């Protein structure tokens, strides 16, 4: 189940996931979904997933897609699943008229950075971002 994989990804990064099944269903299955999930299945269940969120550069009229999560189970890594999920994500974005896709990695995750470079992504300097909680 994607919920289990999302929790595994959080644990991998040292986070404690608070995602619930109800929240995942709301964000993926509502009449206006907040995100799109692409999954990779194997004989024993889900092997990985990609979570995609739309973006916009309004001043340029440019649609984009953020590859918010990409996760492949430990036992399935090195078999091309991540690459296949990225390719599916790129096709999904193109089909929705996107002209770019973004993805972020932990600054210390050199393996992921190399993976995205090999997949054709260019490293960019992130803009300063600010955040305010909306109670």
UniProtKB/TrEMBL annotation:
Gene3D superfamilies: 3.40.630.30. SUPFAM superfamilies: Acyl-CoA N-acyltransferases (Nat). Keywords: Acyltransferase, Transferase. InterPro entries: Acyl_CoA_acyltransferase, Bact_Acetyltransf, GNAT_dom. Residues 1-135 form the N-acetyltransferase domain. This is Acetyltransferase protein.
């Amino acid at each position: 189940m994607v919920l289990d994989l999302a929790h595994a990804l959080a644990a991998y990064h040292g986070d404690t996931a608070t995602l619930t099944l109800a929240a995942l269903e709301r964000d993926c299955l509502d009449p206006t979904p907040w995100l799109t999930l692409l999954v990779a299945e194997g004989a024993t269940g889900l092997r990985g997933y990609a979570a995609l969120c739309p973006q916009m550069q309004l001043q340029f009229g440019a649609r984009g897609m953020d590859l918010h999560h990409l996760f492949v189970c430990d036992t399935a890594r090195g078999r091309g699943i991540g690459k296949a999920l990225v390719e599916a994500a790129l096709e999904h974005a193109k089909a929705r008229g996107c002209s770019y896709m973004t993805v972020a990695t932990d600054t210390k995750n050199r393996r992921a950075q190399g993976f995205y470079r090999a997949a054709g992504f260019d490293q960019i300097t992130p803009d300063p971002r600010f955040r305010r909680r909306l109670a």
